[in-house]
Automatic annotation (TrEMBL):
Residues 286-321 are annotated as: Disordered. It comes from Streptomyces nanshensis. InterPro entries: DNA_Rep/Repair_Clamp_Loader (IPR050238), P-loop_NTPase (IPR027417). SUPFAM superfamilies: P-loop containing nucleoside triphosphate hydrolases. This is DNA polymerase III subunit delta. Pfam families: DNA_pol3_delta2 (PF13177). One of its GO terms (molecular function) is DNA-directed DNA polymerase activity. Signal peptide: none annotated. Its EC number is 2.7.7.7.
Length: 405
């Protein structure tokens, strides 16, 4: 299987990246054979790329596939085959995450700071250890703080000859203008529902009916589709969210529904914390040289490191909570979109098969203007959360508007 197999519904991007990997390969070969000083300018390859696309479109999957293609050492290349065979040592280790010259930076925090970025910039100045390129994939370039962005800028402006930066972000507007203007931009689209269903069957071995349901319900968001298809709890949660529109008929119901959404998000954050926090804390204590056992004292001068870890854990909890709410809100938007489609008599396929009856009932009982106001209310709630409005307040305000329509 070629490295591009999991990049679904992005033919244009894949073609462009294949061409770039080909030129990149020719460049390294020319350099290795000492054929003058090879140049990249004017070729399909360049040192900095920005992958944009809506959440779930597969930005980081595409970036990783490209990273693998850049490391491809398949002998077929000499015979005119495109790099990115998927089988050779270069492709394989890059795909599974063990290639020494592919660094993937992902964060579960809200921001990436100056300190972490400096580390990557240092790395970027080195030559590849054994591979063909030094590749740094920055999955959440939209989370760089301004200071971190400025640190990165210098590295992107004057790249080492065989270093490639692959930045990923939802849209170009999410990245500092100075940085994005130095990157070649690649826009991914929301993959078609059929392509997502196909991927779930092929890659994850999911049954056709379940794959089709999950792909349609999540409207082309690959990660969410996979989670919905494989996680019973995610399906239960979604079913509860889809019942919300019927529960907001009175004030009490609206407020209760709001509280439940918040509780469910908090529950998710707690689960993630239980999974990681204790282990991370114990590991850090050991690294700092504390003796065994929770109660033992930390060595002098190490409290700062412990405090830093606790802050990170707190920020991660906030982020998990936010992601979980965001998922619920996107399910709600989908529900009201289906109501609207029905009211306007469009033949668009329903994303919410399991709520067909509820959609039909609400479509009967309300008018399109109300549905539009409700969609607006959900979007406003999302924006309020982005502005750090207290989640319960934002969700309550939304529930009240959903009630009144
Ligand atoms: Zn290969």
């Amino acid at each position: 299987m070629a490295v591009w197999d999991d990049v679904v519904g992005q033919e244009k991007v894949t073609a462009q990246l294949t061409a770039a990997a080909r030129d990149a390969d020719a460049y390294v070969t020319a350099e290795a054979e000492g054929r003058g000083s090879a140049v990249l300018s004017g070729s399909a390859m360049t040192h900095a790329w920005l992958f944009t696309g809506p959440p779930g479109s597969g930005r980081s999957t595409a970036a990783r596939a490209f990273a693998a293609a850049l490391q491809c050492v398949s002998p077929d290349r000499a015979l005119g085959g495109a790099p990115g065979c998927g089988f050779c040592d270069g492709c394989h280790t890059a795909m599974v995450g063990t290639h020494a010259d592919v660094e993937v930076i992902r964060t579960d925090l809200l921001t990436i700071g100056v300190k972490e970025t400096r580390e990557q910039v240092r790395r970027a100045q080195m030559s590849p250890a054994g591979g063909r390129w030094q590749v740094i994939v920055l999955e959440d370039a939209d989370r760089l703080t301004e200071g971190a962005g400025n640190v990165l800028l210098k590295a992107v402006e004057e790249p080492a000859p065989r270093t490639v930066w692959l930045l990923c972000a939802p849209s170009t507007e999410d990245v500092l203008p100075t940085i994005r203007s130095r990157c070649r931009q690649l826009a991914l689209r929301t993959p078609p529902v059929e392509a997502v269903a196909d991927l779930l069957m092929r890659r994850d071995g999911i049954e056709p009916a379940m794959a089709a349901y999950a792909a349609r319900a999540t409207q082309g968001h690959i990660g969410r589709a996979r989670r919905l298809a494989t996680d019973e709890r995610a399906r239960t949660r979604r079913a509860a969210v889809l019942k919300l529109p019927q529960r907001v008929a009175d004030v009490g119901g609206a407020l209760r529904a709001a509280q439940e959404l918040i509780d469910a998000a908090a529950e998710d954050a707690k689960e993630v914390a239980e999974e990681h926090d204790a282990r991370e804390t114990e590991e850090l204590r050991a690294a700092l040289g504390a003796s065994e056992g929770k109660g033992s004292r930390l060595p002098r001068g190490t409290a700062g490191a412990m405090k830093e870890l606790q802050d990170r854990q707190k920020r991660r909890a906030t982020r998990t909570q936010r992601d979980s709410l965001d998922l619920a809100l996107s399910d709600l938007t989908g529900f009201y979109r289906d109501v609207l489609a029905r009211q306007l008599g469009s033949g668009a396929a329903l994303g919410n098969e399991e709520a067909v009856d509820a959609v039909a009932r609400l479509a009967e009982d309300s008018v399109p203007e109300q549905t539009l106001r409700r969609i607006e209310a959900v979007l406003e709630c999302r924006e309020a959360l982005d502005r750090n409005v207290a989640p319960l307040l934002a969700v309550e305000a939304m529930a009240m508007t959903l009630r009144a329509g």
